[in-house]
User: Which sequence fits this backbone?
């Protein structure tokens, strides 16, 4: 089996506030897509309303083989694939399943944040990788990496993480 034949999950960048529209348009093109939504109460001037809001702003996930890449990129509202090392970044099936399982828990709220919110001396919890569930202190952060000080076994380690691996606590 060629790598292009393999079905994998990928993340797409969308135009701002186009997540649900892109999801619908991809499904109409027979591309399996998923826009994780959660119910959020919003206040209008005259009433409160519960709406389905995308968890990940400007992102939609697609389950596809790379041969369908052009069809996806030609879909109105899609800006590009999220890339890692020059190729569309594969999202592991386990990560998709974790998000889906969290969404099944009643009254669960998933929060996301941008790297801009990571500041030096902020306490964070590691969300993925071999240091998962450890806590540390941000030393510095860029738009792709966070440098976190972990204190373990009486030693101090400075570990470089992808910014999406850390969550402020």
Assistant:
């Amino acid at each position: 089996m060629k790598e292009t034949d393999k079905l994998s999950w990928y993340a797409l960048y969308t135009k701002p506030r186009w997540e649900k529209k892109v999801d619908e348009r991809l499904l109409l093109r027979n591309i399996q897509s998923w826009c994780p939504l959660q119910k959020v109460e919003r206040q209008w001037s005259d009433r409160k309303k519960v709406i389905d809001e995308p968890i990940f702003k400007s992102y939609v996930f697609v389950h596809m083989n790379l041969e369908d890449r052009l069809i996806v990129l030609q879909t109105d509202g899609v800006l590009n694939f999220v890339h890692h090392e020059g190729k569309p970044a594969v999202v592991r099936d386990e990560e998709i399943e974790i998000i889906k399982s969290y969404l099944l828990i009643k009254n669960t709220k998933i929060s996301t944040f941008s790297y801009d919110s990571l500041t030096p001396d902020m306490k964070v919890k590691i969300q993925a990788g071999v240091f998962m569930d450890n806590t540390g202190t941000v030393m510095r952060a860029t738009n792709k990496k966070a440098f976190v000080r972990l204190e373990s076994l009486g030693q101090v380690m400075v570990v470089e993480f992808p910014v999406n691996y850390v969550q402020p606590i």
The domain at 3-104 is CATH 3.30.70.940 (Alpha-Beta Plaits). Helices lie at 19-28, 69-73, 93-104.
